[in-house]
Design a protein that fits this description.
10 helices, TIM Barrel, globular, TatD-like, DNase_TatD-rel_CS, 16% strand
Length: 258
């Protein structure tokens, strides 16, 4: 059993041959896929795929790059979409100060909106953060003080200090193919130390193909390569890593296990 905890099956590069992509992943031992939304207009298609495929689940949310275009999105829209039985997560949401495609204050406000919906529904919050460690940590800490909610940092590439803060707040850490890159020594050190019950793996497909697939369109099948690499870092077998991360997925995304 192996779960790709974050992929974009409706994105260019995958959607054109979606069924073949899923078939290749299943052949590689991938038994579940969390298909992530980044814009409101994607929600219907992402939920529809989850309705069609029993091993695919959906998220609903707004990526920080899209915050300006969704500045008026309220909790009600997210709550309505999240009520669908195949929706198991809120996001991806968060802060991205690397590109600054959206106003930072708008990103922060929408991030808090998603957190409120996660808290109300009990669905895990999928957090994107890039060059925004301090504000991400401050908002998550402040919001946890208002009432706990389940959450994870997807495609973790931040500092060890930030990682420890997230673990202390109760978050899970999800590792993408970036951890396999030769220049990712600091990230590899973090990956080796994440508590066993807080670890997930993902592709972020069609982005960030791991070694030995760099330069190609990333597919969910490649999560097997990331899992194998992380297992080596942690000194465990590939089979054990697959079992651990799958168990963590279903413990966190309890709606997927139902």
């Amino acid at each position: 059993m192996l779960i790709d905890s974050h992929c974009h099956l409706n994105y260019k590069g995958l959607v054109e041959e979606q069924q073949a992509v899923l078939a290749r992943a299943r052949a590689a031992g991938v038994t579940g896929f969390l298909n992530i939304s980044t814009r409101e207009r994607e929600w219907a298609d992402i939920i529809a795929l989850a309705e069609q495929e029993s091993d695919v689940w959906a998220s609903v949310g707004i990526h920080p790059h899209e915050a300006d275009a969704h500045a008026d999105l309220g909790e009600a829209a997210l709550l309505e979409a999240a009520a669908h039985p195949r929706v198991v997560a809120i996001g991806e949401t968060g802060l991205d100060y690397y590109y600054d495609h959206s106003d930072r204050q708008t990103q922060q406000a929408l991030f808090r909106t998603h957190i409120a919906v996660s808290r109300e529904t009990g669905l895990p919050l999928i957090v994107h953060t890039r060059d925004a460690e301090d504000d991400t940590a401050a908002i998550l800490s402040d919001e946890m003080g208002k009432g706990a909610f389940p959450a994870l940092i997807h495609c973790f590439t931040a500092s060890a200090v930030f990682g420890r803060k997230m673990i202390d707040l109760g978050l899970t850490i999800s590792l993408s193919g970036i951890v396999t890159f030769k220049n990712a020594k600091d990230l590899q050190a973090v990956a080796a130390e994440v508590p066993e019950d807080r670890l997930l793996v993902e592709t972020d497909a069609p982005f960030l193909a791991p070694i030995p697939h760099r330069g190609r369109v990333c597919e969910p099948a490649f999560v097997a390569d990331t899992a194998r690499f992380v297992a080596g870092l942690r000194g465990v077998s590939d089979e054990d890593l697959r079992a651990t991360t799958s168990r963590n997925f279903f413990n966190l995304f309890t709606k997927a296990a139902a």
